[in-house]
Design the sequence.
């Protein structure tokens, strides 16, 4: 504030205009998958990055019984203004990030007309009536803005089949209004305790997803 | 538990964690709870807190919600601040001490947190704990966001001590399990040990109870005018006065979500503390033709507003269909109620199949049920009574073997009653933690009456469904059952593994054929806690 007071009027005006011109930042994200696939780690990484970028956020999670192999989702809302609702309204999500292809379709009512759907192509089959994967992928292709990535394969290449969630986050990262480097920083922070090797693998997976 | 980090004194916390951190900062000395979604993370946060360890705050799980609340009342008796947390149905278990603690009153501040589960994400019903507040003449806080939840804990302790009354915190799943940044306040010191000045305060003999009850009724009246409650009920006037809106708890967020870009020029009363703010409600109803009530759970405020006889005011809410009668609210439902459009653009394709939760691969419960199913084959049986835990999933295909799941411990006692009526074999399957929560007393009934029942305790050495909390039963079940009076030769221990299947079926059938009380302890560690334990041991 003191620095602002020392500026000349013309400079002040210029600065204020710049601030006002800045577009409003808002990212409403649905994360989806099957219990145990690591969607909460994705949420934690985006959340950490959001805090670093001085954004407001609310993130609603599923705990309890559904975590036992059932469908799970998380609503993640970032904004440069305070966020009211913990839940995203229907038709307002900017992005669906899904670690499982059929699960990406379950939350379509939340996706906006211009929103992006980013999903893994590898199905997680733990029910007897799982539909043929081609039919699932065809439904996904009907969404105008979609990206399908074989996260399991890319994760294996990066060094761990468990890093599929980081691949998907990497693929979705261009549609999240934050610098890629701050997502990388969050990966370092979140996995730091688990050792350098784990950090390296997850960063590699994130990058592979970004370039996919 | 909890990824949390400091950014300019702000930390990112779940609603549950905000309450826990609030209590730690507000001078908590004892935390008591039994795990139950969506309340579990309150205790887990305090158990994981380095500060709580340093201050030696009491933070162990209790056998059930009743013992938890009574122990918390005991800490309050000794002058210290205590908190007890449970899911909404847990308050049914703890209802006896809860209602009576309002009459005894407290010494050190006492907060009871009840986490309701509208839409029944992980519960048997969607009961609304605010009724317990009114029923017991206890003030209720219903925070609308994480920051309020944190701040209210301080006021709740102050209010509790000022009026010497317990305070109820009512939250719902959505707040309990949603994260946001919370700003901490300067901490308050813990209270010193001091016994109640009136030695008869906690003695509810009728002659004393009558006086205390009278005092409680008058306290409840004065609460309505206390600032630490009333400051949480906010009336905001508007020029467009055709419709006025009352929101309770998090319903306020859903309303504001819909007017973020539009501006809202109608009178709104935001209620987050009870007893009802009568003056503010009459301010609102006095100037509007119609009132819309938005509240999570039952139509608690709406029913009170309508009264028994119709009045001239037009009231919209859950009772007239403006908002669905049951289930959780969301921004889209609220949009519809205020006449805004909230239609999805995409639909869920028909190809999407439901994916219910299921047993983890290699779970001991599934081996137990496979044996039960085969053991029952020679008998005319439609299944087994069961209880509340992961094992309830055996009600679903391919098992379809469970015929009841009602409340904690009910499998044992329902098996007794059905055996009384002639059911044979009458079999109950109950988890280890559920058994020590509320199954043991039922087993004593069976022993005294010599009921022909077989109780199978599916012992996974943990409280599994809520995430693997320590179970009171671990290592004690055999001795407990023998101590209650089950004949030692009819307390059998088996290991639910595929290689033991034939043997386990044989043992079950032997006990079904015995016309007295038998217990089969089917013991194998939960694979989730086992893998966590192995990881912890390796590092």
Sequence:
């Amino acid at each position: 504030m003191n620095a602002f007071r020392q500026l000349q009027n013309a400079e002040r005006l210029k600065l204020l205009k710049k601030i006002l011109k800045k577009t409003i930042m808002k990212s409403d994200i649905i994360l989806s998958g099957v219990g145990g696939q690591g969607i909460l780690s994705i949420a934690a990484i985006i959340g950490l990055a959001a805090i670093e970028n001085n954004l407001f956020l609310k993130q609603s999670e599923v705990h309890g019984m559904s975590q036992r192999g059932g469908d799970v989702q998380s609503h993640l809302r970032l904004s440069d203004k305070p966020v009211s609702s913990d839940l995203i309204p229907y038709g307002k999500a900017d992005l669906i990030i899904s670690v499982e292809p059929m699960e990406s379709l379950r939350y379509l009512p939340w996706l906006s007309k211009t929103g992006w759907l980013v999903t893994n192509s590898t199905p997680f089959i733990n029910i007897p009536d799982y539909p043929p994967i081609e039919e699932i992928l065809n439904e996904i292709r009907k969404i105008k803005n979609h990206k399908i990535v074989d996260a399991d394969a890319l994760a294996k290449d990066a060094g761990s089949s468990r890093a599929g969630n980081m691949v998907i986050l990497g693929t979705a990262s261009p549609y999240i209004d934050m610098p890629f480097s701050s997502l990388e920083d969050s990966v370092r922070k979140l996995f730091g305790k688990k050792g350098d090797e784990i950090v390296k693998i997850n960063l590699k997976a994130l990058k592979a997803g970004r370039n996919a | 538990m909890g990824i949390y980090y400091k950014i300019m004194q702000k930390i990112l916390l779940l609603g549950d964690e905000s309450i826990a951190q609030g209590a730690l900062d507000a001078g908590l000395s004892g935390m008591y709870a039994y795990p139950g979604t969506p309340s579990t993370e309150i205790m887990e946060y305090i158990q994981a807190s380095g500060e709580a360890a340093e201050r030696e705050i009491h933070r162990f799980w209790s056998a059930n919600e009743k013992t938890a609340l009574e122990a918390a009342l005991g800490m309050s008796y000794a002058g210290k601040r205590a908190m007890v947390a449970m899911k909404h149905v847990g308050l049914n278990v703890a209802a006896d001490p809860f209602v009576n603690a309002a009459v005894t009153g407290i010494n050190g501040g006492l907060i009871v947190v009840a986490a309701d589960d509208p839409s029944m994400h992980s519960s048997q019903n969607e009961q609304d704990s605010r009724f317990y507040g009114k029923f017991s003449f206890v003030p209720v806080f219903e925070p609308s966001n994480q920051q309020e939840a944190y701040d209210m804990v301080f006021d709740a302790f102050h209010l509790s001590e000022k009026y010497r009354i317990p305070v109820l915190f009512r939250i719902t799943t959505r707040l309990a399990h949603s994260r946001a940044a919370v700003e901490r306040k300067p901490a308050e010191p813990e209270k010193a040990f001091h016994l109640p000045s009136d030695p008869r305060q906690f003695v509810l003999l009728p002659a004393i109870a009558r006086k205390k009850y009278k005092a409680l009724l008058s306290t409840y009246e004065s609460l309505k005018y206390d600032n630490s409650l009333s400051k949480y009920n906010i009336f905001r006037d508007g020029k467009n006065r055709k419709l006025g809106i009352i929101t309770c708890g998090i319903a306020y967020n859903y309303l504001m979500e819909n007017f973020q870009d539009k501006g809202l020029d109608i009178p709104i009363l935001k209620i987050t503390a009870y007893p009802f703010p009568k003056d503010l409600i009459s301010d609102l109803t006095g100037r509007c033709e119609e009132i819309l009530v938005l509240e999570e759970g039952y139509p608690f405020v709406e029913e009170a507003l309508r009264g028994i006889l119709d009045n001239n005011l037009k009231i919209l809410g859950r009772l007239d269909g403006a908002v669905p009668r049951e289930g959780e609210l969301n921004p889209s439902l609220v949009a519809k109620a205020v006449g805004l459009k909230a239609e999805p653009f995409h639909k869920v394709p028909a190809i999407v199949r439901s994916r219910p939760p299921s047993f983890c691969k290699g779970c001991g419960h599934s081996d137990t049920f496979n044996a039960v199913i085969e053991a029952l084959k020679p008998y005319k049986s439609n299944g087994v009574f069961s209880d509340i835990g992961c094992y309830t999933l055996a009600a679903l295909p391919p098992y379809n073997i469970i015929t009841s799941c009602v409340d904690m411990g009910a499998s044992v006692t329902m098996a007794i009653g059905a055996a009384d009526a002639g059911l044979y074999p009458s079999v109950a399957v109950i988890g280890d933690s559920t058994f020590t929560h509320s199954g043991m007393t039922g087993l004593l009934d069976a022993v005294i009456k010599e009921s022909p029942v077989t109780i199978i305790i599916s012992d996974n050495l943990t409280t599994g469904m809520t995430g693997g909390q320590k179970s009171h039963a671990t290592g004690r079940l055999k001795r407990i059952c023998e101590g209650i009076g089950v004949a030692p030769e009819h307390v059998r221990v088996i290991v639910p593994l595929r290689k033991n299947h034939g043997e386990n079926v044989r043992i079950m059938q032997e006990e079904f054929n015995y016309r007295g009380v038998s217990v089969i302890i089917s013991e194998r560690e939960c694979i989730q806690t086992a893998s966590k334990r192995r990881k912890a041991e390796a590092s």
